[in-house]
Design brief:
The protein has 78 residues and is of the alpha+beta class. The chain is built from 3 helices and 4 strands. It starts with a strand and ends with a helix.
Length: 78
């Protein structure tokens, strides 16, 4: 897969852990930004998504908010 995968998350977010577990199970490489400590990435996430909640996942240019497994599978071609 050649789409870049990015997740904006926090350490205490249950759904963030679920997304990362899903990625691990499916051998999906991703870049993670901890928006609880990285103010620049938090501002970037809010600007891109209009959301303050996490997780916010980008697969290529496609944004998914929350743990929407069917959508993630579709975007990843699984």
């Amino acid at each position: 897969m050649d789409k870049k995968v990015v997740i904006y998350s926090t350490p205490t977010c249950h759904f963030c852990q679920a997304v990362k577990g899903f990625f691990k199970e499916n051998n999906v490489e991703y870049t993670e930004y901890d928006v609880s400590t990285d103010q620049e990435k938090r501002a970037e996430m809010i600007e891109k998504s209009g959301q303050m909640g996490v997780p916010v996942v980008f697969i290529g240019e496609e944004m998914t908010i929350g743990f929407d497994e069917p959508k993630l599978k579709k975007e990843l071609g699984l």
